[in-house]
Design a protein that fits this description.
122 residues; mainly alpha
Length: 122
């Protein structure tokens, strides 16, 4: 069996590193804090939030914007329209990259929310 070299987060060897991302340099493992601000995942979530948020804002608030009837209440709704797809994309990326100790050991584990992940290391 070959050993895998990990590029770990800045919190060091003692930190729990439950997230694993593919990178050009190999596999990167991150703790919660570093995974939340991992630039490739964050930029992907921002792009998804902008595209999906724009489509939803036009669908849901296009009439108000065209008529020029923007109020502070509508502005908050539009901001949330962008925030929700960003949060969902980030949560999905973290759920997909989550690893558990039993999966690392070659067994089946539990993903975010305690649901069986069904992923096996090959």
């Amino acid at each position: 069996m070959t050993s895998i070299e990990w590029d770990c987060c800045r919190h060091g060897e003692g930190a729990r590193l439950p997230f694993q991302f593919a990178a050009r340099s190999g596999t990167v493992r991150k703790c919660w804090r570093c995974a939340l601000v991992y630039p490739p995942m964050l930029w992907r979530s921002v792009k998804i939030g902008l595209v999906v948020g724009t489509v939803l804002a036009v669908i849901n608030h296009g009439g108000v914007l065209v008529r020029g009837e923007l109020t502070s209440g509508v502005a908050w709704k539009i901001a949330l329209t962008y925030l929700v797809p960003f949060v969902v994309a980030t949560w999905g990326a973290l759920a997909a990259s989550r690893i558990s100790s039993s999966v690392e050991a070659g067994g089946r584990g539990r993903g975010l929310g305690g649901q069986a992940s069904g992923r096996r290391e090959t």
